[in-house]
Design brief:
The protein is of the alpha/beta class and about 220 residues long. The chain folds into two domains: about 150 residues, Alpha/beta knot; about 50 residues, tRNA(m1g37)methyltransferase, domain 2 (Trp Operon Repressor, Chain A). It is built from eight helices and ten strands. Strands 2-1-6-5-8 form a five-stranded parallel beta sheet, with helices on both faces. A three-stranded mixed beta sheet has the order 3-4-7. The longest helix is centred in the C-terminal third of the chain and has 22 residues. The protein is elongated, with a radius of gyration of 22 Å. The two termini are about 40 Å apart. The relative contact order is 0.15. The chain binds ligand 21W. The site of ligand 21W has 16 residues, from strand 5.
């Protein structure tokens, strides 16, 4: 069982993403438990304030240290990894997702505004993770990306048919083109080989197309 606790200023962003499809099924099957917590609920300030202006001046607001410290302290146990979603963190990839899927407990801290007080990273966080080199408004969408990629790798979440797809992705080749009914749509035809019933030939064609797609995308990169 993987437990994921999310600390965020915007808990309302999560239910839509977590409440559908494979993520919902994983929770129903008791393979994961995901809880979203409002950082403000841990604030000892009378207005539940959780941000403030930066020391030294500059634009925007910084998430303050007290609500995040108290939130993490109340959620943490000896098995917890504490992950800050941060634009300067280690780039998220499939290998990181596979590793996190074998953990018992993840605490995800979503930054916002101009950032998070550095003492959170220094004293609390075990890993800092970014999902790529572009600027977002906060760590919430990255947290959902991480949860999606990690939860599908938890043993039992995907059926046997679905997990075959991840094997082919992890082989480093791109997917071969897929078609379904009808055989022809507005003059666009399904490749004849797929209708032939010759499974040896179909396998060959798919391998050839995978290689073609992989080479083409490496040129673009
Ligand atoms: C964007 C927070 C920029 C902080 C020093 C002086 C989490 C993210 C985020 C955000 C800054 C991820 C500054 C990919 C992302 C995230 C919000 C920098 C400016 N620093 N992965 N001035 N992209 N984004 N603050 O944006 O929190 S993971």
């Amino acid at each position: 069982m993987l437990q994921i606790d999310v600390l965020t200023l915007f808990p309302g962003m999560f239910p839509g993403v977590l409440g559908e499809s494979i993520l919902k099924r994983a929770e129903k099957k008791r393979l994961v438990r995901i809880a979203v917590h409002d950082i403000r609920s841990y604030s000892r300030d009378k207005h539940k304030k959780a941000d403030d202006t930066p020391y030294g001046g500059g634009p925007g607001m910084i998430l303050t240290v007290q609500p995040i410290f108290d939130g993490v302290r109340s959620l943490k146990n000896k098995n917890s990894k504490v992950i800050l979603l941060s634009p300067g963190g280690k780039r998220f990839d499939q290998a990181l997702a596979n590793g996190l899927a074998r953990q018992k407990h993840l605490i995800l801290i979503c930054g916002r505004y101009e950032g998070v007080d550095e003492r959170v990273s220094k004293a609390l966080v075990t890993d800092e993770v970014s999902i790529g080199d572009y600027v977002l408004t906060g760590g919430e969408v990255p947290a959902m990306v991480l949860i999606d990629a990690v939860v599908r790798m938890v043993p039992g979440v995907l059926g046997n048919k679905e997990s075959a797809v991840s094997d082919s992705f992890q082989s480093g080749l791109l997917e071969y083109p897929q078609y379904t009914r009808p055989r022809e749509y507005k003059g666009l035809k399904v490749p004849q080989v797929l209708l032939s019933g010759d499974h040896e030939k179909i396998k060959e064609w798919r391998m050839k197309e995978s290689l073609k797609k992989t080479k083409k995308s490496k040129r673009k990169a």
